[in-house]
Amino acid sequence: MAVKSDADLAVEIAEGAGQVLLAVRDELIANGEEDQRAIAKAGDAKAQEFIAAKLREERPEDAVLSEEARDDKARLTAARVWIVDPLDGTKEFSQGRHDWAVHIALWADGDLALGVVALPGLGQVLSSAKPLALPARAADEALRFAVSRSHPSPLIRSVIDGAQGQDVPMGSAGYKVCSVLRGETDAYVHAGGQFEWDSAAPIAIARAAGLFTSRLDGSAMVYNQDDVYLPDLIVCHHQDRQAITDSVVKALALNG
């Protein structure tokens, strides 16, 4: 039997985890479960179980870094590490919204090699192996920024105002990055509260599609580090890079 390519395997896992999540949510709601935290917890656990089993079966020699599993530091000397978030956007998932995601990324030999993000609420899967064509944007239109529904940031508010942009609230970090790829927004700028699994897969896809990606200070997004806290990012079209980074610099100065 031919071995699946990493790209095909990642799509299979992301799609499968998405189906698991939808089934778990539907079953719990049908049985009268109303506690959103219980729905999110059950979804996280079942998706993690599915992803872990598939990777053990298909790539037993590879290391794994997951939000929902113990961090095995053996990954720091591994040549290949899967970086996964079984359910990105637990609140949106438990509320029956569409703006949540499943993240499957592969880090290999020092950098991201692959990223797949499933958007089960939309029935769509995005892969760095098959990058989307970026939507055109008129230069005279106001920039649309993907922003958090539940955790608004004064710093990001300053960035948007400085760039004379508009905010578009939505959930899930992965969904926000994908919103730029899908043409729903033009940029996503984030400050604080994320880890490697929140951005690895969507950043790999954004890079493959030709978007600009960086930390707020302009440095590269680096993965498979000992400390997996990776709190900030910029994702945008290259034509908007200067305006957005200038606004970030001013906002950082204003907000200390």
UniProtKB/TrEMBL annotation:
CDD domains: CysQ. Keywords: Hydrolase, Magnesium, Metal-binding. It catalyses: adenosine 3',5'-bisphosphate + H2O = AMP + phosphate. One of its GO terms (biological process) is 3'-phosphoadenosine 5'-phosphosulfate metabolic process. Mg(2+) binds at E67, D85, L87, D88, D198. InterPro entries: CysQ/Inositol_MonoPase (IPR050725), Inositol_monoP_metal-BS (IPR020583), Inositol_monophosphatase-like (IPR000760). GO terms for molecular function: 3'(2'),5'-bisphosphate nucleotidase activity; metal ion binding. Pfam families: Inositol_P. Its cofactor is Mg(2+). This is 3'(2'),5-bisphosphonucleoside 3'(2')-phosphohydrolase. The lineage of its organism: Bacteria, Bacillati, Actinomycetota, Actinomycetes, Micrococcales.
